[in-house]
């Protein structure tokens, strides 16, 4: 998701590994330790298909969170995906908390980061002061500002994935996980997608469902990646 990195998947990755899955959790362009930048959503898939072909048996099951739905759909359209599981995805409705997006893109201190990230979950923020300092150091580099400006338009989200998801649902299994306490996106948009797309409801989870509802989400992902 926007401003996140591969470490956010550590718990789910460990659970899937214990279930016998091979897991690849890359940093998206513009995020984490990757040196590839992304100034617009369409750049988020740069290099991912090559990485998958070099590392995994392709097509592979792809799981994505929030803004990560953009490169996930691009990979699916390129034929590199066996199934898609999208957690609180962007691109299915106009509403987005632009204060969160622009705030995180311009955050200077760990305190700002902490306040903003607390909006994404219902539980207390499960990050150490060192982790918050690391995120603030990354946001201070300004790598997210151009991406934020192109992700959010004057009326809301600038990305729409509804049509490509409807097309893809005819050929691969697609699941959307809708956390009902999401304050960044509107969960009700996530349930109005094409009828072939399965929707899983998490009534007590916020936008960062991998923190708020890890056991339930792990069950969903084990089923999604079973074959």
Task: Provide a compact summary of the structure.
The chain is of the alpha/beta class and 227 residues long. It has helices at residues 10-18, 48-55, 69-77, 98-106, 110-118, 129-139, 145-151, 162-168, 209-212, 214-224; strands spanning 60-65, 81-87, 174-179, 198-202.
Provide mean pLDDT, rounded.
94
Assign an overall shape: globular
What is the tally of beta strands? 4
Runs in which pLDDT lies below 50 for 5 or more consecutive residues are: none
Strand order of the largest sheet: 1-2-3-4
Q: Alpha-carbon distance between the termini?
A: 26 Å
Number of helices: 10
Description:
With 227 residues, this protein is α/β, with parallel strands linked by helices. 37% of the residues lie in helices and 11% in strands. It has ten helices and four strands, in the order ααβαβαααααββαα. It has helices at 10-18, 48-55, 69-77, 98-106, 110-118, 129-139, 145-151, 162-168, 209-212, 214-224, and strands spanning 60-65, 81-87, 174-179, 198-202. The chain has a four-stranded parallel beta sheet with strand order 1-2-3-4, sandwiched between helices. It is globular, with a radius of gyration of 16 Å.
